[in-house]
Specification:
Blueprint: E1 12-13, E2 19-25, E3 30-32, E4 37-40, E5 46-48, E6 61-70, E7 81-83, E8 106-111, E9 113-118, E10 131-134, E11 139-141, E12 149-157, E13 160-164
Parallel strand pairs: 9-11
Antiparallel strand pairs: 1-9, 2-8, 3-7, 4-5, 4-6, 6-8, 9-13, 10-11, 10-12, 12-13
Length: 170
């Protein structure tokens, strides 16, 4: 599947272990979308979950989903983290000259069990607790090569694969 280009209405499995991971600065020239999986790169900045790559993308840690955007204050629902130069009108609380630089805006990250899209490797034979890997910022796979762990599978139901992003869980 292709990476997100807009907000995603991400379903949550009510399990009672939801917590706020915290705020993470968004990597330079990076766009993150509310409801999408977020990872921290080697520099500690937020990027969309994706296959590993070169430079700071060689080391990724998926931590949860984007819950909201912080740019001089919490932005209204539906405003995405578009850390791109020239978007001063979208983020009036941020100096226009800093937009596009690493950390100019931040995202609030939620951890819980969230429903993600999945590829053909995930079938009815998948077992609860099995590791799932991030294919992109809204899709998981069982293919480990080149992908980072998204979390553990809780259930596959209603066209969604529910992933436990609780980093405190075994």
């Amino acid at each position: 599947m292709a990476a997100l280009t807009g907000s995603r209405n991400t379903s949550e499995w009510a399990v009672g272990n939801r917590y706020h991971y915290g705020l993470a600065g968004v990597e330079a020239a990076t766009s993150l979308y509310v409801g999408g999986m977020v990872a921290l790169d080697a520099n500690g900045y937020a990027v969309p979950a994706q296959p590993t790559g070169a430079g700071p993308l060689a080391t990724l840690l998926v931590v949860g989903i984007v819950e909201y955007v912080y740019a001089g204050g919490i932005m209204p629902p539906g405003v995405n983290a578009l850390n791109q130069a020239g978007l001063g009108s979208v983020f009036p609380g941020v100096p226009a000259a800093s937009l596009g630089n690493a950390g100019a805006i931040s995202v609030g990250i939620a951890c819980s069990v969230f429903g993600m899209d999945f590829d053909g490797t995930i079938t009815g034979a998948v077992k609860m607790g099995q590791l799932a890997y991030a294919l992109d910022d809204h899709t998981v796979t069982l293919t480990a090569t080149g992908h980072v762990i998204a979390g553990r599978i809780t259930a596959v139901e209603g066209g969604q694969c529910y992933i436990n992003f609780d980093s405190r869980a075994p």
